[in-house]
Amino acid sequence: TEPCGQMPQITLCWIFVFLLAPCGVIAGEIRSSVDPFANLENSEQGKLAVRSNFVTVAPDREAFKIGTDASFHINSKVGGFLLVFDIDPAGNVMQLFPNQYSGSIGTRSTVRAGDTIIFPADNDVFKLAAASPVGSGSIVVILINDPTAWNEFLKAYGDLHVIKNDSTFQERLDGLINKMSLPSSAKTKRNLAIAEARYLIVK
Q1: Cis peptide before 133 (omega within 30 of 0)
Q2: Euclidean distance between the first and final Cα of the chain, in Å?
Q3: Whole-angstrom Cα distance, residue 21 to residue 19?
Q4: Alpha-helical runs (H) found in the chain
Q5: What percentage of residues in the chain have a pLDDT greater than 70?
Q6: Do residues 118 and 149 touch, judged by C-beta distance below 8 A?
Q7: pTM of the shown model
Q8: Which of 16, 30, 179, 200 could be 63's S-S partner, Cβ–Cβ 3.0 to 4.6 Å?
Q9: Is it the case that residue 84 has pLDDT exceeding 90?
């Protein structure tokens, strides 16, 4: 962390420009990683969740120049709780939402059927801007109706930093998908929906 006289930034593939926060710059580690969503996309549960088309995500444009603001539009046909992840062009994974800065101030955790959510929300305390490396990345959205699991991901990965422990994250992600794929009962109704959108970062 470095003192400075301007708004702080967390610099990874995306730059989070904080509007209300202590001044400082935290530089993320750039590293390659195995795609933790591969198991999800190849599993029968994951394929069904993708084919359901219950949730969709789209960037506000196909390509972002470095330094320009960005936002993503998420539409859901079912109610639940959002998990939003970024896989940058270098293969680094970051949980964009939930995070410790949005909370009840900006982006809503609860999605109602038919909602369209814009991330970041206008009243979030940060903006999202494109940063290097250039190339193709993707946004993965998972919609669940398990508030306990949602809070676990918030506590574990809500600091807007690269997720460094691939194996632990993989186990947590696989466990979530397996849990949400169990048959619903009279007391417990499980919703699982998954969507992915590609984007480009250019100079």
Answers
A1: yes
A2: 27
A3: 6
A4: 38-42, 44-51, 147-157, 166-180
A5: 66
A6: no
A7: 0.77
A8: 200
A9: yes
